[in-house]
Amino acid sequence: MTALVIAEYESSIKDETLRVVTAAKNLSNEVWLVILGYELEKILNDGRSIEGVDKVFIIEHEQLKQFISEVWAHQISILLDANSNIDTILMSSSSQGKDLLPRIAGMHDEEKLTDVIEIISQNDFVRPIYAGNLHSRVTTSQKRKFLTIRGNKFNPASMSGQSITSEKIVFEDCDTVTKIVSNSSDNVTDTIDLLSAKCVISGGRGLGSAENYKNILQPLAKKLRGALGASRAAVDMGLAPNENQVGQTGKIVAPDLYIAIGLSGSIQHLAGMKDSKVIVAINKDPEAPIFQVATYGIIGDLFDVVPELTEKI
Ligand SMILES: Cc1cc2nc3c(=O)[nH]c(=O)nc-3n(C[C@H](O)[C@H](O)[C@H](O)COP(=O)(O)OP(=O)(O)OC[C@H]3O[C@@H](n4cnc5c(N)ncnc54)[C@H](O)[C@@H]3O)c2cc1C
What we know:
Blueprint: E1 2-6, H1 15-27, E2 30-37, H2 41-48, E3 55-60, H3 69-82, E4 86-92, H4 95-107, E5 112-116, E6 118-121, E7 124-129, E8 134-139, E9 145-149, E10 166-168, E11 199-203, H5 210-224, E12 227-230, H6 232-236, E13 257-261, H7 267-270, E14 278-283, H8 290-293, E15 296-299, H9 302-312
Parallel strand pairs: 1-2, 1-4, 2-3, 3-10, 4-9, 5-9, 11-12, 11-13, 13-14, 14-15
Antiparallel strand pairs: 6-7, 7-8
Bound molecules: flavin-adenine dinucleotide.
Flavin-adenine dinucleotide binds next to helix 6, helix 7 and helix 9.
């Protein structure tokens, strides 16, 4: 049987999609990739070079230039109707995945299974519950499975440079009431994607202001080529943009290095970063819970410690 991975990309195929390909390979001998969008030449070349992918579908149209869930779901649904051998549809547990995949599952009258972290067999999966404090084993008897994958438990498939066959699918018109008027981001200076960054520098309430968040964290992030993260308190206070939030209700990351600065380490925050390989905590309170998960801890005032650390690096 065949697994279909829905590709996510910016200037190239995202690391999360490469990880989903690895998960798909654990399930099926045959793995297909579908890429939707507009002016996709470079992304198609990337997709065709992914090891483990057997075929690439491309659906290209101006209406797919921006991600609009119902338009994308309609195209994929048609692809599924035409290929009854596709028994598993996978996407990363990103905000796009959480939007698109349940919609397609609903259109096919099936349930989705989210945040899969382990594949035991074709019908048996493990997913976290209670903010990652417990793991639940879920068995499904669905003929077609719709899974979002928490990528950090799977290694990314490599881009081998091979050139896999691709097939163009004709875009089907689809009525939608949704229109993207404009896209904007507060996060103009941080260009590294939080989900695929090897190093994340996160700040919390202790930073006190948006200016400090930027002036204290950004130089360190630049030196370490890291992405900026934040606690929810930092986001709620307007210190950091919403898309930087790490945690139970934010992004789940597991970089090689996570530096937590002026954040306490609430269970909701830990749920989003505790799988990081090395955790460094900088906090003036020696009792802060973040020190319980930290590989290295620096007890001190962040306004002294971080500039000195940045300078030494
Ligand atoms: C349903 C639910 C979901 C949630 N989801 C999330 C989530 O996804 N992500 C998330 O982060 N939170 C989440 N929260 C919120 C969470 O419970 C905490 O409130 C939040 O994580 C606290 O953020 P913080 O660590 O920045 O702030 P605080 O807990 O106030 O910690 C600030 C820390 O900064 C230190 N500090 C202060 N000044 C300095 C200084 N000068 N130098 C060094 N250290 C200093 C203090 O010692 C303190 O430890 C959620 C809560 C709920 C109820």
